[in-house]
Amino acid sequence: MARKQARRRKPQKKMPRIRLPQIRPGRFVAPLVATLIVVATYELSSHLLDREIGALEISGPFQRVSALQIEEAIGHELDAGFLGADLDRVRTAVRALPWVDDAAVARRWPNRLAINVTEQVPAAIWGESGLLNTRGELFVESVSHVPAELPRLSGPDGRSPDVARRYLDIRERLIPIGLDVRSVHLDERGAWELALTNGVEVRLGRRDVDRRADLFVDIVADLITGRAADIDHVDMRYSNGFTVGWKADAAPTDDDSETGGQEMLALRGNE
């Protein structure tokens, strides 16, 4: 009689038990209570220590802005008290005043607010009566008295920074050779024209303006310096040279034109 072989059962693998970390409520409650105590203490101390603003310290080299204007501009912010006053909003209100370039605001214990104001510095006239600062920004659109000593810049709306950059770049390079810029104009078509303080007008046109400006500063300016009193204008709108427009009593030709004639000067090496 055949023996039945006993089948061995494979031992079943025991599934590992996942033990979840035991979190004690005290670990959350204690920090939460501590945080609430800190916040409550801060709010309570702020309420107890806050007080009315007793004085304003307003400083700066005032020429166009007065302390009274500043006080009126921020009056509604002072009602919040020494600690409640929003310093960012105070600074924004001061900076919104005409002729104010920047402002710094700080609290001074126990009840003073210190405001230091920096005024705008006019660097050029824009258009008929606007004023640009040293960054080429139009900060006053119209003034009753235009400083005669400032250069005159003009151009389409929104182009004042570009015109200012052109003026500063050319002027910085002309000053060392004894020349200066009186005005820079950019017309609606994009053509540039500038006038020097010696009366000579320089026409740069619309194309290759940077190259033409470099050519004028590096070469032409030296050539015309000695005869500036006889020159009406210099036209740089040529690919292989430039023209000099002479005044009527100084023209080297018999041309009967309004400016007394033009002379074409070629520059070797130009296209």
Structural class call reads alpha/beta
Instruction: Give the fraction of residues assigned to helices.
Output: 25-40%
- In N-to-C order, the SSE pattern is HEHHHEEEEEEHEEEHEEE
- Give the termini separation: 118 Å
Number of DSSP strands? 13
Which word captures the global form? elongated
- Rg calculated over all Cα atoms: 37 Å
- If you average the pLDDT, what whole number results? 83
Summed up:
By secondary structure, this protein is α/β, with parallel strands linked by helices.
General description of the model:
The longest helix is centred in the first third of the chain and has 25 residues, at 25-49. Strand 10 (201-205), helix 6 (209-225) and strand 11 form a beta-alpha-beta unit. This protein has a ten-stranded mixed sheet, with helices on one face. The model has no long low-confidence stretch (mean pLDDT 83). By secondary structure, it is α/β, with parallel strands linked by helices. The chain has six helices and 13 strands. The chain is elongated and about 95 Å long. It has helices at 25-49, 67-73, 75-78, 87-95, 160-174, 209-225, and strands spanning 55-59, 100-108, 112-119, 124-126, 130-132, 138-140, 152-154, 181-186, 192-196, 201-205, 231-235, 241-246, 262-266. It has two domains: 55-119, Roll (Ubiquitin-like (UB roll)); 124-266, Rossmann fold (3-Layer(aba) Sandwich).
Task: Outline the fold blueprint.
Elements: H1 25-49, E1 55-59, H2 67-73, H3 75-78, H4 87-95, E2 100-108, E3 112-119, E4 124-126, E5 130-132, E6 138-140, E7 152-154, H5 160-174, E8 181-186, E9 192-196, E10 201-205, H6 209-225, E11 231-235, E12 241-246, E13 262-266
Parallel strand pairs: 1-3, 4-7, 7-8, 10-11
Antiparallel strand pairs: 2-3, 4-5, 5-6, 8-9, 9-10, 11-12, 12-13
